[in-house]
From TrEMBL:
SUPFAM superfamilies: UDP-Glycosyltransferase/glycogen phosphorylase. InterPro entries: Glyco_trans_1, Glyco_trans_4-like_N, Glycosyltransferase_grp1. Keywords: Glycosyltransferase, Transferase. Residues 20-199 form the Glycosyltransferase subfamily 4-like N-terminal domain. The keyword Secreted does not apply. Residues 210-361 form the Glycosyl transferase family domain. The keyword Glycosyltransferase applies. It comes from the Bacteria. Pfam families: Glyco_transf_4, Glycos_transf_1. This is D-inositol 3-phosphate glycosyltransferase.
Amino acid sequence: MTSGRPLKILIGCDTFAPDINGAARFAERLAAGLVARGHEVHIVAPNTAYRRSRTHVETIEGEPLIMHRLPAVRWLPHDWLRFIWPWRSKHYARKVLDEVQPDVVHIQSHIVIGRGLTRIAHKRGIPIIATNHVMAENILDHTTMPAFINRIVLKLAWDDAARTFGMTRAVTTPTRKAADFLERTIDISGVVPVSCGIDRRNYTPVIGPRDRNRILFVGRLTGEKKVDVVLHALARLDPALDAHFDIAGGGDQRRALETLTHQLGLDDRVTFHGRVTDDELRELYSRASVFAIASIAELQSIVTMEAMASALPVVGADAVALPHLVHDGENGYLFEPGNVDDLAEKLTRVLTADPVEYERMQRASLDGVAVHDITRTLDTFEALYRDEPLPE
């Protein structure tokens, strides 16, 4: 832990509980971990309905967080996303900053809330740390605009990100690959890779072969997750493997994926669990044989780290940050993004591995996730908040 008095930290989030996604989960764990270390943490996030802003205490990850919920409207093309009106973001930023008087502001995106907080905090001389969880391309999956309009919106979004990040003390993103991507995209330098981190004590690794071949995916059922690729690969596996696919999570693509499952004749081999509790999720991880993720838009993938902490081999797309977690031939395999045959072949390798080889991959996952312990993440952000040298 870094030195000095406890800090008053304001974290700005465009997505937070009850939303279920990587950015929200990271902000929750970060905030709760900081409170456990004695800091006073305030969260600015969209409200769950369009009602006047309210300040209250919510218990997140077992810790009390002071929440500033802002009036938010639903983005209709998306199944859960809510946002505040962009032209109101500076107004709310002034109100919250007046009330909290933080030592530091930490934004979790440059989109709306983070954008407003950055501009007002910068004017007031309050240090700002920014973490980028966003690939602007993902947002376009939920628009209803023509492609040529989307391209214009994409350029404007990244230009605005550059202006926002230019006002900060430091910019972080979950992995070195994600940092490289951001530096290339908006022509900035010095982006600091800081793992989202997980508490490995929350997971139950079960070493050894399973009594049934179970493939697991956990996450939002949206276009960029490419769950359809896993379904097509499942259909091409040798029937003798008797593999079952468990899908945990909800999203706008669920109905389409259920239809595809029926079309592929996989109804008795696929279970859509929907949103699950933490206990149910741990059970799914512990009984699975392999974790499969075909996503092409992961800046880190907390669910992949959770799978690794549960001693699961992983088969993942060779895209963006997944190769940072999945080391081909060590704790699983990478496959060519979108290549159904390659995915089926890599899944088959894991599901047919002899017990010694399977256990070797399991232990490689446990070893690989050790560097992502939440303690290291908290140490790093504390140092950034205090403008101190970063830990090794």
